[in-house]
Structure formats: C-alpha cells, structure tokens
From TrEMBL:
Keywords: Membrane, Transit peptide, Transmembrane, Transmembrane helix. One of its GO terms (molecular function) is nucleic acid binding. This is Transcription termination factor 4, mitochondrial. The lineage of its organism: Eukaryota, Metazoa, Chordata, Craniata, Vertebrata. Gene3D superfamilies: Transcription termination factor 3, mitochondrial.
Length: 356
C-alpha cells in the first residue's frame, strides 16, 4: 500500500513542523484527499513562506475560500498590530480604582469604615497626598482620629498647609510643652493653633517670657487654657497682664491658675469696678494685703453674669445694668477728652508754638 506509507511519512513530517496557531490557512494534500484530509494552522508572523495546494482543489472544497481571496483579505502582521482597536477604559473604573487606593491608605492610618465615610463626606478641597500628609502629622502629634475629624470640620484649610509648615508647627508645640492630652483640648476649642503664622506664636512667647516674666511652664499653661491670645494684639495682651499684676495685685501663679487670660478685658474691668463701688473689692497693697476679704478671683472671672451679680456682688441685675450704662458714658467722655487733647496738641505743633 504505497499510498498508505506516503500518508504516514507526510504525517510525521508535518508533526515535527507544527507552528503556533496565530493565523491559519487550510492545507489539504491532493495525495491524501481520499484517506485523510488534514487542516494545519500556521502563522504569517513567524513564517515567511506558504504551503499551498492547487487553486482548483481548494476551490472545489465547500466551506474553504480560495487561497487568493483568503490571503488578500487577511491583514498583514504589521497591520494587525497597528490597526487592532484598543479597548477604552471606562472613567468610572478609574475612579473606582482610585477610591480603592485612597481607602487602603486611610485604612493603613487606622481609619474605620465609618470614619472614612465621615472624612469623605467633609468634601475637603485638597489633593489626596496633601490630605494624607496633614493627617499623618496630626497623628504623630498624638491626636486621635476622632479629634482630627472634629478639627477638620472647623478648619478644613488645615489640609492645604505645606508639609514643612506642619512639621515646624509640631516641633514648636512640643517645645512649648503641649503634650498629646493638652494639645487635644486646644485643638478641639482652638483649631487655629495649627494655622496661625509661626512668627505669631514666637512673638507671643517672647512677650510672655521677657516682658511679663512668666516661666516656660507657665507659658505652656497659658497657651493650653487661653490659646485665643494668639489672635489678640500683643499690646492688648501686655495691658491685660499689667491690669492683673498692678491693678489687682495678682502674682504670676494666680494669673495662670485663675484663667485670667480667658476672659475679655472689658468684662473684667466692668466687674472689678462694680465690686469696688459696692465696697466688696479692694486692690491689695504692695505687701498683697487688704482691709477686706476679696472674693476669689475665679468667682469674679469665670461665673456667669447672673451668678456674679447675685452671688458675688450680692446685688440685682437692674442695678448692674444701670452701672454698665454709667460706665459706658464715662468711658465715652474720657475718649472724647483724649481726642480733644490730641487735636489741641496737633494744632499747636502746626502753628509752631509747641517748639518754643
């Protein structure tokens, strides 16, 4: 059976010469058509030759197009690579991947799902990396995630602060003695502690230390209990200290412990004047002594207006309202006199009489 032997020999040859099935042409050998129709797949990309049968034979088989039409209609390898359409990436998929990355970063910082939801609901207008850096610095200061979220609700611009500013602020607050517990209290009531200019904190520290002669421990306590001083004019802060030290005869320790800097200067002045006119308060002498027992400083400063009038001054609200009206008229008259004196002084200088 010579035909059978030939078929086996051809079969073994083609078995050794298989090619990757990236493209295909149908190869049917005429000598094997009666015994074994064989289909081989081969790649035009890796093989620069063609195994073909006679055009008449290929065209005679149903379901197999002619070689010429098949080859001419099929794109070349280079065209296949360049003309293949690239699948467009859906924008929602990109957003989803980005959200997963953001979520993973916050999970690494210790955020719970509920806390991440709260953070995302704040709609903070800041780049992701900026937010991550700011939150990391606040965590290094010892603030809890709950505290940080409350601070960001009041001060969202904190997330736009440069990393260098946050690190310098953290170092300064540590040097001033604000530990994690005290800093938490300050941050909740005065989140501007992180955003006020660095120079402003240094200037207040210098004033309290060099002009008011407070110790560093006392300065730390003042910043913890009265951080709003950072927003006040330095001259007003100095005048408030002088009023407490010279007018009321208070020592440095008493000023710090009583929370004197927490109250406004106008309110303190009204209450002290009211008590003096009622004979219930007396300025201590140089030795710190008085002829009457003064009310405790905290009861004067920290009580509500109702309790101060009825319990400390032992008076009525009507009397206190009349007093405040008289005091306001006196201050207005004093202000007008000072302005008149300034105008008179300026007119003398313009006439040249002031230089004689």
């Amino acid at each position: 059976m010579p035909n059978m032997k030939s078929a086996v020999r051809y079969w073994r040859i083609f078995e050794k010469c298989r090619f990757p099935p990236l493209a295909y042409d149908s190869i049917l050998l005429p000598s094997l058509s009666a015994l074994l129709p064989v289909a081989f797949w081969w790649s035009h990309r890796f093989l620069d030759c063609r195994l073909i049968t006679t055009r008449s034979f290929v065209q005679s088989k149903k379901g197999f197009p002619s070689y010429g039409s098949n080859y001419e209609s099929s794109p070349k390898p280079e065209e296949s690579l360049t003309n293949t359409p690239i699948e467009e990436v859906n924008a929602t998929d990109v957003d989803h991947l980005k959200l997963e990355e953001d979520t993973s970063a916050y999970v690494n910082l210790g955020f719970s799902p509920a806390q991440m939801t709260q953070l995302f609901n704040l709609q903070l207008d800041a780049p992701f990396q900026s937010k991550l850096t700011a939150i990391s610095e606040l965590l290094l200061l010892g603030l809890s995630i709950t505290t940080i979220l409350k601070v960001l609700e009041k001060k969202p611009e904190l997330l736009r602060m440069p990393p260098k500013h946050l690190k310098e602020r953290a170092d300064l607050l540590r040097r001033l003695g604000l530990d994690a517990e005290s800093l938490t209290q300050v941050a909740l009531h005065f989140p501007s502690i992180f955003t006020v200019p660095h120079k402003r904190i240094k200037s207040l520290e210098k004033l309290l230390k060099e002009k008011c002669l407070f110790t560093m421990a006392q300065i730390s306590k003042i910043l913890q209990t009265s951080p709003q001083l950072l927003l006040e004019e330095l001259n007003d802060v100095e005048y408030k200290f002088q009023f407490a030290y010279f007018r009321m005869g208070l020592k440095h320790g008493q000023i710090v412990q009583s929370g004197f800097f927490q109250a406004s200067m106008a309110e303190i002045n009204k209450r002290i004047n009211f008590l003096e006119r009622l004979g219930r308060y007396q300025t201590p002498d140089k030795k710190g002594q008085t002829q009457i027992i003064n009310p405790k400083l905290k009861s004067i400063i920290k009580t509500s207006e109702q309790d101060f009038v009825t319990k400390v001054a032992c008076s009525s609200m009507e009397e206190y309202k009349v007093f405040k009206k008289l005091l306001a008229d006196e201050e207005e008259q004093r202000r007008q006199q000072e302005e008149a004196m300034e105008e008179f002084s300026d007119s003398e200088n313009d006439d040249g009489t002031g230089s004689e």
